[in-house]
Amino acid sequence: MNVYHLLMLLIGDWSSRPQSRPKDMEDIIDYVNNKANTTWTAGINTRFVDATSTKSQLGALLNPYGRTLSIKTHYPLLFLGKEALPKEFDARKAWPNCPSIGEIRDQGACGACWV
């Protein structure tokens, strides 16, 4: 094996490694698993280890112009109503004639359902 082939193998191995997770994601997972009173456990879905695989499944062009987008971490509260929120709400009861509410579709390998 010559040096060129060895170099290509090393580059391929390096580029296929998952990107590191953002610190805020680890904080969220820690909060959900240790402080929030939930019935489920948060974690990393290994099916989408890095953003590249997720973007490719969504059909996105992988940053064709080298631009980066700012990430908005919160959204301002646009409307504060005077009406209190109900203790529970069931859309199936509120709109019983809507056939799609309550329907769970098989999204298979869609990818968009994970974003």
Automatic annotation (TrEMBL):
Sorted alphabetically, the keyword list is: Disulfide bond, Hydrolase, Protease, Signal, Thiol protease
Report domain Peptidase C1A propeptide positions. 26-63
Q: Which residues form the Peptidase C1A papain C-terminal domain?
A: 85-114
Task: Say yes or no: keyword Hydrolase present.
Answer: yes
User: Source organism's superkingdom?
Assistant: Eukaryota
Gene Ontology molecular function terms on file? cysteine-type endopeptidase activity
- InterPro entries reported for this sequence: Papain-like_cys_pep_sf (IPR038765), Peptidase_C1A_C (IPR000668), Propeptide_C1A (IPR012599)
Give the protein's recorded name: Pept_C1 domain-containing protein
